[in-house]
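for the writeup, i need someone to sanity check this before i put it in the appendix. the sequnce is what the collaborator sent (i think, or maybe the updated version? ugh). structure was predicted straight from it, no edits. if anything looks off just tell me and ill rerun, i have time this weekend
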Amino acid sequence: MTIKFERRPDQADAAGRCLVHLRAYFDGPRLRISTRERCTAAEWQEEKGKFRKSFTGCQDANDTLHALAERVTKRPIFGQTYCLTCMDPIATRRLEILASNILFFGLAVALVDSAWTMRGALHKPSTLGLLLVSYVVFGGFYYAIRRGVTLVKWLFVLGQIAMLLYTLVQYRTTLLPLLHTQLWTALAYVAFFGSRVVAMFVLLPTLRTRRLALIH
């Protein structure tokens, strides 16, 4: 990642002082942050990206630029940690990808269990179609989570909280019957619903994180 400061001539005030911006580059995407500092061309060293000694408060201003560059690379800013990996579109969705992997695992287990349980009726087009449509809908929902769609993440988390509360309150009809079912069925149930609970906790930090605005 490359970080540099530049003076923006297109944003000059009446006195000819221009805003100084920080620019960060990483494999194409760019991040731009205004430092709110203004200076004239004579007060700015373009080749070094810092203020000249003629600028009032030169040392403090340059220290501020240096501190801002450090914060962009490794410290939280406005609720979002900007770092080298944060400018990678995949890295910004690391938790969403992890959550979707967990969900797809649970979905695969549930699909195998459903196919085995309904094996006597799978020859019927209506039964097979209903099974496939149901799991395609689940898969699409989980893929939207993987892509970081905020609305879908909120719907999923709120839905899982409601489901978890209902399961605990109605444990006599939701959990206790598992003690009297076949081992594979119980494990499939735990894998499917357990994966959703784990994914919910994985996604919780992403609901309060502001995304990095990339300028292309």
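The chain is about 50% helix and 15% strand. The first helix runs from residue 58 to 74.
thx in advance!!
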